[in-house]
Design a protein that fits this description.
The structure is a homodimer of 405-residue chains.
Chain A: H1 10-20, E1 25-26, E2 29-30, H2 37-52, E3 56-59, E4 65-68, E5 75-81, H3 94-107, E6 111-116, H4 127-132, H5 138-143, H6 153-159, E7 175-183, H7 188-191, E8 196-202, E9 204-213, E10 217-218, H8 230-244, E11 254-263, E12 269-270, E13 273-282, H9 285-302, E14 308-316, E15 320-321, H10 324-337, E16 342-347, H11 352-356, E17 362-367, H12 383-404
Parallel strand pairs in A: 5-6, 5-7, 7-17, 8-16
Antiparallel strand pairs in A: 1-2, 3-4, 4-6, 8-15, 8-17, 9-13, 9-14, 10-12, 11-13
């Protein structure tokens, strides 16, 4: 059996992460939106670290930072994203990037390192990894806008000096696969007293907008019998979803009505319209199909009520399976560094790995999030867990590369 | 038996109403907010008509237009409000004022006419009638603000030249009672093929704000079992209200959840808070008590769920009973002018009569609203129904005055 013994430099790993936290520091977290000054400064800093590590480093035309190994033979691509949500955590994305860099440094070759741009969606959706796999056209660049202030993506790239810079594209044949580490962003590992999670799949997400149109009227003079109250219709459907979904879902399915609003929303006016967004996630397309079928059945039943109902599918992303051999290799590495303290688990959040998995085998490793907190500046993971995770990650990377070589 | 035969001048009645429609004309309705130029012009025009009718007329310090009969003996006070909702109907309020004027002209004495200010609540709540019965203090005037642009009530009164003008107050002993006519603002008369409604009571309104506090979290990574979803809690309570209220209410009770909103209201975020306003109306305090008890029971049940629940009573207005002898007199008048085409009925909307009823016996008469529409510029009533209503109104007024005299 291939000997995957390896160790990482824990002090260097933590020092790099803490240095990265200074770019856009916000309380104990960071405020580092895509293409902000802090984000670009962090990318330039990372490029210099890649050069130090002996990689050929570049920042491409969408902001991806690429560090290319000079070793011949099949390579592993490894990394995550570098920007943050607004006023959010220091490890979300950054940790996976530095794990990749540390794996490249520890293995001494065969690992390309990447920091994707805009996984957090300030200007689009997975801009960097989609650009890399060829799913972001020039027209797509034209259309990109900052979701808070509507700045055109083209203007942001120009301001960062990235206008006209070539975009790095996937090279078929170079890679045995992609590995990404990330904080869990949930409390499942912590609740079970575990230290590491091997991701089996990244969930698919389906999202529907359901709009009820009734008749806006006086809440005092309109008899109950003749009302067409869009709010009542929406509440009835929402209740039916929460009643019915538990009977058709799988153990880790989640569903959320994050938005529900009445129009005009005044105490003495019967709502003339009501709108809700229903979102559900699962790692299995068959389960997503069952959930969607159930939702559409409930919408059909709602049509028998007094209000008009409109149901639009806003998005349907497919679950992304992580490669079985990568799961096996990561699991063996976890068992080596933390015997019995790991599990296989799906990812309920989206990650660049779901994009990259379209062009090469991919794997993901999770470390615990303290209290399950993420997308908030108080997000954190214990230093020892960060180091432990990197040990498992580098070991798994070495195993995968060894099997390929 | 007292002979209440009387007739009104139909042409004069309709001509006055159509002239009034020119003040703030908007499509086929009017836009005549309280203390707007159109409103003040309409009040001055009305004052001149009162003088022509032989009344001592004045506009008081809150904008009420008063026309005082010079005839000795007990008087009837009669009228309604003159301002409109924004871009609303031409008859809502105005019709009741001109009925009062026409009754005064037809009876030739004993009828005082009033056009109250701000029944529609642009600056407060029933400002004119509350001022009249002594329930609007100087402090209350200080606090008044326009609900759309926050203009202080004092500034609006100054701009209209009403600053420092005395406010007319109720004179105990002068009146046998108050009579008000109004459009129905609902479709009950029309649906039953009736022409006139004798109001038995004006409903009481109770209003509660219910707020759920849960835990805002990631809609992908947070397991269903540990969620504290404030939106789910709100939807469950709203559904329970709509399920349970039909079992405790009376035939004409109404209940409305006009506002329901999730915070922060994003598709991928589990709502951390949700708030709703529950309003219910009935003409019987005992029924309102049952509804409130049921609501509070359901809120208690909701407290057993994972979210914190706060329930605040925002307002409780009591049902206002119309005087039985006035109902009898109006019913006899309806039967005389429209045999079999009238009914007794509660008013689901609020009216100045509910305020004035606190100081003197009061009665109300309804005429049909075409399609039940009100608070919209397309609100209308057939001319012949307007005339018929005024005949019944004047006849009822004469009967009541005759009984008193």
């Amino acid at each position: 059996m291939f000997d995957s013994t390896i160790d990482v430099d824990a002090a260097r790993l933590l020092a790099d992460l803490k240095r990265l936290r200074e770019f856009g520091a916000f309380k104990t977290g960071v405020h580092r939106p895509t293409y902000s000054e802090a984000d670009i400064a962090a990318r330039r800093w990372l490029r210099d670290r890649m050069v130090e590590a002996g990689l050929d480093a570049t920042i491409d035309g969408i902001g991806n930072v690429f560090g290319r190994s000079r070793t011949p033979g099949p390579c592993l691509l490894s990394g995550s994203h570098l920007e943050s949500q607004n006023e959010a955590g220091w490890l979300d994305g950054a940790m996976g990037v530095i794990y990749g860099l540390e794996a490249a440094r520890s293995l001494g070759g065969g690992v390309d390192v990447v920091a994707w741009a805009d996984e957090e969606g300030h200007y689009g959706s997975f801009l960097g990894s989609r650009s890399y796999i060829g799913e972001l056209s020039e027209t797509g660049l034209d259309a990109g806008r900052n979701k808070y202030d509507s700045t055109p993506l083209r203007d942001a790239l120009r301001r960062c000096g990235l206008e006209g810079v070539p975009r790095v594209r996937f090279e078929p044949g170079r890679y045995t696969g992609y590995l990404e580490a990330h904080i869990e962003q949930a409390d499942d590992l912590e609740a079970r007293g575990l230290k590491l999670g091997v991701v089996t799949s990244i969930v698919g997400i389906r999202q529907f907008r359901i709009r009820f149109e009734g008749t806006q009227n006086h809440a005092g003079t309109t008899r109950m019998a003749i009302r067409r109250d869009a709010g009542v219709a929406a509440v009835r459907l929402a209740g039916a979803i929460h009643d019915t979904f538990p009977r058709v879902v799988a153990a880790r399915s989640v569903w959320t009505i994050g938005r529900l609003a009445f129009e005009p929303g005044a105490p003495s006016i019967i709502p003339g319209a009501a709108e809700m967004i229903v979102q559900f996630r699962d790692a299995d397309d068959a389960v997503l199909d069952r959930m969607e079928g159930t939702l559409l059945d409930l919408v059909e039943q709602a049509r028998r009520g007094p209000c008009d109902v409109r149901c639009d599918a806003l998005s349907r992303s497919r679950p992304s399976l992580m490669a079985e051999p990568f799961q096996d290799a990561l699991e063996a590495a976890c068992e080596a560094v933390a015997p019995g303290l790991h599990q296989r688990m799906p990812s309920g959040a989206g990650h660049d790995a779901q994009i990259v998995a379209r062009v090469m085998p991919s794997g993901m490793l999770f470390v615990p999030s303290i209290g399950g907190v993420s997308h908030h500046w108080s997000e954190n993971t214990a230093d020892e867990d960060i180091v432990l995770g990197c040990r498992a990650f580098a070991r798994g990377a070495k195993d995968i590369l060894g099997q390929a070589g």
